[in-house]
Amino acid sequence: MMVGVMVLSFTLLSTAFMLLSYRYIISEKRDAMARNASYIATFTASYYQQYDSIQDKIYSNYVASIARISDSYVIVTTPGGEIIYATDGDHLYDYKNTCLPKAVVDQVLHDGDYTGMTNLDGIYPERRYMAALPVSAMTLSGRTVVEGLVLVSADASSLAEMWSAMATIFFFSAVVVLIISVIASTITSAHQARPLNEMAEAARKFGRGEFDVRVTGYEGRCDEISTLAESFNTMASSLAKVESQRSDFIANVSHELKTPMTTISGFAEGILDGTIPPERERESLQIIVSETRRLSRLVRRMLDLSRLNALAEDTVTAQEQFDLTEVVSQVLISLETKITGRKLDVDVQMPDGKLMVWGDPDSITQVCYNLVDNAAKFAPEGSTITVQISKKDGKAYTTVQNLGATIPPDELPLLFDRFHKADYSRSMDREGVGLGLYIVKTILNKLKENINVTSEDGVTRFTFTLTLA
Asked: Which of 75, 118, 192, 237 has the most crowded CB, counting CB atoms within 10 A?
């Protein structure tokens, strides 16, 4: 396409150049011939007034000099068009008893000049560019009379050679520039296409499951390709991370499903084949019910994940005013059994009265539930959970704090990732699949609010914000 555009551009440019240069050369030549004809006509008129004849050496030398300098042919005729003098500067030509075409003579006498291209009805062997003027002289009585005609002509071949030389120079210049442009564009295209081809090959490898492929070697380029390569590698890292999370999630789900299903199958078969005595059947059925509920919780978490993925596609979250203290209180009441069962104390620090904020009360209830549930799950028995609400700069800050194992600093940024579960918690959190904190982060992001986590000296603290109403 680039070569086609350049060829078309040079074609249009060369056509315009040739037409304009040809017209300019013709115009300049005609103007030069008209000036020379004017000089000769003026000189001839003066010569007629002084000598009544132009058949001498002085006149011949003057006219021959003009013809030689201007590389033209000069013809002087009588008023009737009969040729009396003809020269090209080097030679005198004998055209006795030869007359100019009547049309040319009439136009000069009637219009005062003539310009055109003609061979004068065979006087010249080829067509020539010609300018003609009358030789006007003033009589003693003050009357102007025509003493003759002056014609100055130029061979068209000289003009064609001049134009051809200019066109040749332009053509070769255009060819050189075109070749340089093609080479430069080819190198540039290859320079641009190589990383794109590498990215295409990397994308094909991604399709085959090779997520460790990266596009390298373009970090130093300060252009769009460098930005594209960086973005491509970022995308590749994200895909690899998602694939890793997917594999971990499948492993987690498989692990969570295998234990209860094995337990259910084992006790059910034991009841059916009589291995379990009748007095233990009730106990076995209770275990089957417990494991069935575990499976139900796992399916419910999966449905929550599906709902959040659909929510993430929506760009608008409806908000309303609600009392944050009431939401937190209801969450603590709903988790009272679990908190009491682990012999935990709850230190609640909330403002007196209502604290109105903007948000979705159902979603914030789920946020608070997940955070308090996590705190109760990982806090040592007999320790204290702290729930604190404070106000600052138009925001309500809700903090959920518990004692327990310190989370490593490099683990903190991963807590809100989907399917992520810290290794130390796997045996403790048999019900989780790594979705609780991801749900919290997603809900707060939809509300354009923030959440952060710190863990130091065995104290883990989650704090999220809401806008005061």
From this structure: 75
